[in-house]
Amino acid sequence: MAINELQKQTNTNIQEKANLIWEIATHLVGFYKPHEYGKVILPMTVLKRFDDALAATKEKVLAANQTLKEQKYEGAIRDGALCRTSGYSFYNTSKFDFARLLADPDNIQANFEDYLQGYSDNVKDILSNFKFDDEVKNMVKGNVLYVVIQEFNSKKADMSPDKITSMDMGYIFEELIRKFSESYNEEAGAHFTSRDIIYLMTELLIAPEKEEIRQNGCFKTAYDMAMGTSQMLGCLTERIQEITPEADLKCFGQEFNPETYAIAKADMLIKGGNASGMEFGDTLSNDAFSGYEFDYIISNPPFGIDWKREKDAVEREAKLGYDGRFGPGLPSISDGQMLFMLNGVKKLKEGTGRMAIIQNGSSLFTGDAGSGPSEIRRYLITSDLVEAIVQLPTDLFYNTGIATYIWLISKGKAANRMGKVQLIDASKCFVKRRKNIGNKRVDLSDDCIRLITAAYNEFDNKAYAEGALSVESKVFDNDFFGYTKVTVETAQTDENGKPVLKKGRPQPAKGKTDTETIPLREDVDEYFNKNVLPYNPLAYMDRSKDKIGYEIPFTRLFYKFTPPRKSDEIFAEFKALTAEEADLMKDILGE
């Protein structure tokens, strides 16, 4: 299905369904504050989805459970048998379901707790991350548990898999989280990335392998280090299965927010995916996938967020050098996004692994030569890992209007890409939204994604245009981004104006130290003789202080000079406006 069609679907029936579910929160008014509604609505939505999914096999599961008890089967054998019977990788052995709970209002708390205890351990893990036991007690205290279950059992809250697909359920979760975030005065974009961005990332990620996937299928692994509700993994799976329905993409992810982690695991359970590959925890300080390697990595980690909480663990691992994840260097403590970049690189499968990761502009240029960020860029570029960087339009994300970039990292570059980096300016490739959502004022349409992907595939120095959309691609050698930072001193002079020497070497004058940034592709001595000595004959270089740096001056490389208007044009316009103003004043004053 085309992206525009998916978004239309999201903005109509899916949004309506989410609105209907959210309306249940009206029964919480008075006892819960608006920003607390999600604490009930999100886990209850998950439970109702599970309840509706298990309805068809409910009686079979109860019978199987009784038989297994009589035969004294426990543990993995029992779990496996009950999952096969339920048709999912989870089950519920309680005699209660939502409908039966409503038949006994006087014992709603005890029966509901029995119902919750009947779930398999993987569902109990989800509920524990929602801290749902506390909410059950709160609902009982506020005398709203029965009415909430009643509302979720109404026709409007029917979430049977034959009525709502797994993909649509993902959309509903996104919409509910957005509503929860807005009511909590929290940035919705902190929890998920809009699908137009994800679809572009997936297209770029699989572009070199699309034909191979179509012909030979796909049996690979994917990982998201900051997975949120796991929608990036879901979209990647959707896209690959559109190419070949038999594709088997095993997904793994880690998430630090307990509620979004719970939704990610619930979503994976209902899809029949790799729910055991969804891990809770802080990726930087508590890596759940140490030693793993993945075919694909797709992620939008937080940027502009400090890593003070993880500082001790990160610095300990950095001391391991390249045996750990952070060998190349550490970024500023105020922004941990490049740590996620290094985590991804460490986990890419050697020879074939590919990563699409979002970063803001600071990863391109912050940090002087020899600093952590510069050394990370140096490592990525000199190791020939950076395949392409795409500048996205501003106002594309829910929670920020700043410039953002997709970095494509590859451990298996095509032969023609080796030793080179492709930069793609897609900042003018967007369509305006009819209605803004937070800071999101523009979308990437199907045509946008097609044009950007075409520029990536052609790998050329070329501008592309289609109607109002424009994209420009430029290709550079790796060493283009490197430079030597050279310390330049000015020699002390004696009363005759001659340099003061000590052991045959000139002595530096205090307060006159300077530096020059010299591209790696230029000879340092030639540059110095041409650009420094003519203006300061007493200058000399202290080459013992040389530092190598790397930066990617994206904006400068795509800058287009616009000549100023001619003065006579400006004057003519000024005269015309003055005359127009005079006529207007006559009309107003009647003179």
Record keyword descriptors for this entry.
591 residues; alpha/beta; Ferritin; Rossmann fold; 10-stranded mixed sheet; 3-stranded antiparallel sheet; 22 helices; 17 strands
Describe it for me?
With 591 residues, this protein is α/β, with parallel strands linked by helices. The chain has 3 domains: 3-183, Ferritin; 191-418, Rossmann fold, CATH 3.40.50; 481-554, no CATH class. The protein is 42% helix and 17% strand. The chain contains 22 helices and 17 strands. It has a 10-stranded mixed sheet with strand order 3-2-1-4-5-7-6-8-12-11, with helices on both faces. The protein has a 3-stranded antiparallel sheet with strand order 16-13-17. A hairpin with a 2-residue loop joins β11 and β12 (469-477). The termini are far apart. The model has no long low-confidence stretch (mean pLDDT 91).
